[in-house]
Hints:
The chain has helices at about 5-20, 95-110, 170-175; strands spanning about 30, 35-40, 45-50, 55-65, 75-85, 115-125, 130-135, 140-150, 155-165, 180. The chain starts with a helix and ends with a strand. It is built from 3 helices and 10 strands; from the N terminus they run αβββββαββββαβ. It is an alpha+beta fold. The strands form 2 sheets. A 7-stranded antiparallel beta sheet has the order 3-4-5-9-8-7-6, with helices on both faces.
Amino acid sequence: MTNSIKYTLAGLLLLLLTVSFTMPGDWYVFNTKGATIEFPKKPTTQVQNQKTAIGELNMEISIYDATKDTFATTNFIYALVTTEYPDTAVNSNKKENIAIFFRGAIDQAVKNVAGKILSEQAIELDGFPGRAVKVSFDNDMAVVNMRGYLVHNKLYMLQVIAETGKDQNPLLLRFLHSLKLKA
């Protein structure tokens, strides 16, 4: 057997082992109004009403605390926060206000954890605008990876809190890429 075949087989075996250990079990498909997302296990959900300058906002907060799980990796928390805004105030069709909207949402999230932005990038989901942001906090011990998408007047904010330096793992990426909009 040639060395190249040995290396190829070894690489395939390593890939198979990595996938089998990093993707445990079937994930829970969580349905929310207008979208689905996959969590490692069933999240807990609560609704909060918050009074703001543009009116009362309803926030649906779904969280899975991975620190209580036996297969927990370096990810601590998986969360989806869905907020519906008054259509006249916030809407993805109002292109001139999108940058200002995301700047405010990101700055507030960073302030909430007393963190610092490590990276920020404009992204899209099915043609709707979004932002991918990585924030360091807790004296650089943890990182929150966020993806926010503005779909008409609804913000879908995905967040995974992970250990610093281990924040691009397959479970985190699976969650961040699993949001699917309903037709």
